[in-house]
Amino acid sequence: MNFSNIYDLFQQDVDYQSLLQPILPLLKKDEVILDASCGSGHILSYLITLGYRTIGIDNDESMLELAHKKMGTYNLSSNLFLHDLRQPLNHKFHQIISLLDVFHYFKGVKGVIKNLYNALYDGGKLIIDLYNGPQNEIESGTFLDMNYHWQTTTSMQRLIHRITIKKGDITYSYVIKQYLYPVEYYINQLEAAGFKTNLFKGFDDRKVYVLCTK
What we know:
This protein has 2 domains: 3-133 and 181-213, Rossmann fold; 137-177. It has 6 helices and 11 strands. The protein has helices at 3-11, 16-20, 42-49, 61-73, 110-118, 183-193; strands at residues 33-36, 54-58, 79-82, 93-98, 120-131, 137-143, 146-155, 158-167, 170-179, 196-200, 207-213. The strands form 2 sheets. The protein has a 7-stranded mixed β-sheet, sandwiched between helices. Strands 6-7-8-9 form a 4-stranded antiparallel β-sheet, with no helix packed on it.
């Protein structure tokens, strides 16, 4: 079982109404939303059911396949494209969201920020989330028909997730690596690119949410 499937299963348990509640007032229904690194499409699906127009991009084909399947299952429609945020986007948008740890998957974000900045019209908005400090926690339990153990540790600007899943007699192990710098680092990079930034609280107390305006 690849990690995309595990990720998708665990994301089903997220309260997307609460997650997006402080973000929705910042979004407009009459303008397309780009979900930059949309993963398996849970946020896309929720936004579409609320009447928002969306485009999703991700650098993982298996994630996009899951997103596409999800759209079909619920008779939803969204354009999905394979794209690496480290490469320039060839279109412009009025609003971009990049949530659920996206910025923490990059060792350096300067190029990513530049590409997102250039993909916005003047006055356009980018909304991201960032961990507000080191993450060190352990969670174990049963989910669906799986027993899981999820350990997160932070060391030397690396955020490491070690995940063990036991399904029947089969055990799956995954190691997911992210990068974790102080919030000030990300804010400095965003503002150096030309963004005006405003931090606000959201669904996840471990994070800060940032409204970036071009």
